[in-house]
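Subject: sequence -> structure tokens, single chain

Hey, anyone have a minute? Need the predicted structure for the following. Not urgent.
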Amino acid sequence: MGVATVTELKQSISGKRTFRPSLISRHANEWPPTDVSSDLTVEVGTSSFALHKFPLVSRSGKIRRLVAEAKDAKLARLSLHGTPGGAPAFELAAKFCYGVHVDVTVANVAMLRCAAHYLQMTEDFSDKNLELRAEAFLRDAVLPSIASSVAVLRSCEALLPAAEDVNLVARLIAAIANNVCKEQLTSGLSKLDQMKPVVTAVELDSPAEWWGKSVAGLGLDFFQRLLSAVKAKGLKQETVTRILINYAQNSLHGLMARDVHHGAAKCGGAGADADAVKKQRAVVEAIVGLLPAQSKKSPVPMAFLSGLLKTAMAVSASSICRADLEKRIGMQLDQAILEDILIAAGTGAAPPAGLYDTDVVARIFAVFLNLDDDNEEDGGGFDYGSPRSPKQSLLVKAAKLLDSYLAEVALDSNLLPAKFISLAELLPDHARLVTDGLYRAVDIFLKVHPNIKEAERYRLCKAIDSQRLTPDACSHAAQNERLPVQMAVQVLYFEQLRLRSAIQAGGGGGHDAALFFGCASAAASAHGGGGGMRSGSGVGSGAMSPRDNYASVRRENRELKLEVARMRMRLTDLEKDHVSMKRELVRVGPANRLLRGFTRSLSRLNELFRLRRPAAEPGLQQLGAKATADAKVLFQRRRRHSIS
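Reply:
Had a minute. Here:
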């Protein structure tokens, strides 16, 4: 029936194919062959193939050796479960052995190359064998193309370790890296040649625009090796960053931090949850290791770094990984917004001390304050502690960001006062040109935490510079019952000093007063409302006249002086009550203790209401006396009017 015997096969082991050409031509277009009964069944996985020994052993050295070494001369069944690519790969190889035309494509070339190596379909056993044909396709159609190389590399993930044994993975990665860098060089040269003002219809895209998304589908190991290779070849950091962002979005999709915490419900149990967390942790740590070098001018977006840090915190990534991300964010803190530093507290064995992880934010700002420009291209370091620093604008921007963060975390009732105070005292004094933001955050914290200790309340308010509050904030602070009395008196004192300097500076004082009131007066003038905007003729005008401005300043100054006089009168009444109570309470026992406690409290209150004046301003005492005299005159006038 045209089937070779085992004895004939053994005689032709050392030579090349000796079967009759008529057998191949007879079954060239027929699969599976039906005119000749099968004498060998090959099992691959769960599939079985009824074939013939002679066509197989003529091209496959492995099958020839197995048949020759078989103890049974009538071997009828053969197992090849280790074939790379499984049953589909073996079927294509078997067709090739029978002479059936097999199309080698990008989708199956890796499978055929590995199957040819496993079945030993080399030139030692037959001319123009499957291994040679697969290698020719790789050389001519796959390796010169980036897209084809990436597609074949993705198919190699299911063929390990056979793909590594034939050195296919390493060759593909090297080819991709070389072609990408050539493409980058070609694109750069073409842009240099385009010196004409006419814009071309088609512009060369960056490599990351057309192959970065396909690379994002690779496994973590292949992706790390590929990106390390292209970085070593000199790929631009911007392109590397875009590739990393695409890969992170693709790999971490469905494994975000919110899904990790509820993994038992979404991933099918604790085991699946642990696997998801482990996979996400490996991806985050790998991406952080592939990021461009740390620099203030790094092309990595702040939003991407923040997302990586939040994910790293959620999956308990290594401390080295988290520290690297914190340092990167600190170096680029001028690009951050509030959402970037709002990092939720981790869930561990111990309950968190609040909704947000303030320790991470403190470390990030510490990195920002300790920046060193020695390795920067602009040269020369700078000192953040100097008010004249050229980077003062960055420090002011960071202060505004920190004030916004403090106002947000102040709403957390579980936040410890010590942590809030440490954040409020983190920046130097000259970082805040205006302390309204910090005052707002402190006021929110005191409102949410009404039961904090007086010492903590005093230390918290001490961080606010009363001299840098705007008039609106000063007015609010003077009436704020949540603040300590010391701060209210301090605000009134500095407000009086500023009013005095605004009135006494210059001739009319209207210009200085306008500068003092700043945006508040400008806003009132812009809206055209209020009685202070009326001119002497009674007709509304677009700007306040110097006389009206001066009158307004004097009126507000008079009101402040009147308030100080009232406080002094209250203090006098308290002293009188103290003297009378001291005379009445003469009995021994609890009354004396009460008297001593009341005396101490009153002495403290007396110190609070005593205005401390610097030695460099001797005229302040006269100003206080004048305020008291003006108040008395006002009271006398009111009494005269009431009598009449």
